[in-house]
Amino acid sequence: MSQDFISTQLLVAGHWQDAADGRTLPVFNPATGAQIGQVAHASEKDLARVAEGAAQGFAVWRALTAWDRFLIMRRAANLLRERAEPISRIMSREQGKPLEQALLEINAAAGVIEYFGEEGRRLNDALIPARAPNVEQRVLHRPIGVVAAFTPWNFPINQIARKLGAALAAGCAVIVKAPEDTPASPAELLRAFCDAGVPAGAVSLVYGNPAEISEYLIAHPVVRKISFTGSTPVGKHLAALAGAQMKPVTMELGGHAPAIVCEDADLDSAAQRLCAAKFRNAGQVCIAPTRFLLHKSIAASFVEKFKMQMNRLKIGQGLEEGVTMGPVVSERRLNALNELVADAREKGAIIWQADVPLPNEGCFFAPTLVLNPTLSMRVMQEEPFGPIALVSEFSTMAEAVQEANRLPYGLAAYAYTRNERTERLLGEQVDAGMIAINHHGLGVPEVPFGGMKDSGYGTEGGPEAVRAHTLIKLVSVEHDAPEF
Ligand code: NAD
């Protein structure tokens, strides 16, 4: 067995261990198809121990002061930074993304953890003025309990960092069900927390059959909150399971982001920035721009500039020097993308693909434009979650906004314009949890990150993300009248 072969274990009550029944799942490199590791497949026996350990970990973690929790979280963030280089190699091999993007993700995750650690120190209680004399009304924010967090493979570390960071800052313990496609890099994140001194059971890590694990954990009495990032259908299913248990959820689901390019836009900047945002992580980003809505007066010019940018992409294995786009994560995703493009082609779309060489093996998908799409095409309704941009034209801003708001999704939206009034109107009228105009600055930890409608609810950024892991309690006390 190659020494690069990684066996990822479960983290149960502070111990790294194999599954109780020894079951594993294979892990593949999407750039080559080779098996590069395996991951432990938890059974109910493991999950029962994890839940018990998390209950104990919660009791210890919540009893620490916010300052002590912050110190541990800051240490974990620093360990992650120190280890970023080797971890980025692990991530690139199992997920496919270019090394540079893996490094950026890991360093961003360290920043997220640090931010939330600090935010936990500002989780202030409140005193509300009372209507009667000598009455004190205290509003307490207390940790909600053990959180079950389900995270996907597109950002194997950062998706977990957001959930862990916000929950730990509030004093909660977290059981992470990390992605089986990309298990080894998340384990390194959890290792950083263990090495930083987080109490046993305050963080746990499991893999296995996602449906079985979510059903088990959501129903478990120890688990008090559910947090999920993934597709809308799975999110609705998990929210329903949680609803049956009266447990709150944070749901960060799919998107189908419009990118409106107005007639007064800086086209060079728009083409360059939208290309970078579209093809980052091979388009497997919930906030990736997908529906390009171009004012008809600039459409041809923008498409030419955008194609030039696409032709500059370098496709290959993430570990290769200079590669800017890797493979998609799995054959499952490759097949899904091929089906969407075949459907669009059959229904009359013009398919244009970047003139760049693709490796002969692995899950590579060429950067693709779908021109003249119609509403009957699946890709105009479903999130492609890959390197596909759909190009349509509009004549009036009202038309553009109507198309932007057509779908049940409402996660991210983008626009390029130099008109301040248009900026303001778009900010108000586009139904999206996040709108970036003339740039792509979404995702820093101190601002909200979340969607509306079928894109989910709750936020994974800012102080609200920490508060979402608390219970609000009122303690109202009538004291004796004070006298010396
Ligand atoms: P999928 O819906 O099968 O899985 C998405 C994620 O959810 C995976 O990590 C998977 O392990 C998990 N999952 C699936 N069923 C689950 C269950 N019953 N309980 C708990 N977790 C469960 O889709 P996929 O093929 O892996 O990815 C494709 C779709 O997922 C995309 O089209 C996109 O909409 C969505 N996705 C979204 C994000 C995001 O950042 N919002 C990330 C990854 C995938």
Summarize the structure.
This is NAD-dependent succinate-semialdehyde dehydrogenase. With 484 residues, the protein is of the alpha/beta class. The chain has helices at 44-63, 66-82, 84-95, 99-120, 158-169, 184-196, 210-219, 232-244, 267-279, 299-310, 331-346, 397-404, 420-429, 462-467; strands spanning 6-8, 10-12, 15-17, 24-28, 35-40, 126-128, 135-143, 146-150, 173-177, 203-206, 223-229, 249-252, 257-261, 289-295, 350-353, 368-371, 388-394, 412-416, 434-437, 470-478.
Report the CATH topology name of the largest domain: Aldehyde Dehydrogenase, Chain A, domain 1
Structural class: alpha/beta
The global form is globular
Q: What is the radius of gyration?
A: 24 Å
- Cofactors and ligands: nicotinamide-adenine-dinucleotide
CATH homologous superfamily title of the largest domain: Aldehyde Dehydrogenase, Chain A, domain 1
Query: What ranges have pLDDT less than 50 throughout 5 or more consecutive residues?
Result: none
Please tell me the total number of domains: 2
- Oligomeric organization of the protein chains: single chain
The helicity comes to 25-40%
Strand arrangement within the widest β-sheet reads: 15-16-17-14-13-18-19
Name of the CATH first level of the largest domain: Alpha Beta
Number of helices: 14
The average pLDDT score comes to 97
Q: Major β-sheet, in short?
A: 7 strands, mixed
Strand content: 15-25%
CATH architecture of the largest domain: 3-Layer(aba) Sandwich
Distance between the termini: 79 Å
Number of strands: 20
Protein name: NAD-dependent succinate-semialdehyde dehydrogenase
Family: Belongs to the aldehyde dehydrogenase family.
InterPro entries: Ald_DH/histidinol_DH (IPR016161), Ald_DH_C (IPR016163), Ald_DH_CS_CYS (IPR016160), Ald_DH_N (IPR016162), Aldehyde_DH_dom (IPR015590), Aldehyde_DH_Superfamily (IPR050740)
Keywords: Oxidoreductase
